[in-house]
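Thread title: Can someone regenerate the structure for this chain?

I was given the following input by a collaborator and told the matching structure tokens would be attached. They weren't. Posting the sequence so someone can regenerate them.
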Amino acid sequence: MKEIFQPAKSGRSDIEQFLVIETESLDWQDSGIPGFQHKVLYREENDAIETMLIEMAPGAFSDSHSHDRREQIYVINGDFYDQNHRYKAGDFLMREPETNHIAGSDGGALILLVFSK
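Best answer:
Regenerated them for you:
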């Protein structure tokens, strides 16, 4: 496994530029499925990576669907389920592209979702 902290790169400034998103300033966007809203935090031009927050209302449910990219989900708070498992705050799951799944929440949830090729 690669080390998390690697030596600093020589010749680089100690002050770097970072992308910072104040998520509170972003409006929730309608996802097209009742009970699901999202905020896009980062998207590469070629859609190779897309990071978003998903807010699921209590009782939100989406029928079976798939995505053409790998899906990584971290449950920030609340509850989330698919046809295989029920997830709680702190749980992480990853699905490969084209994986059929449902999505729902009994009590509502906030999740971090990362799509990648």
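The longest strand covers residues 70-81.
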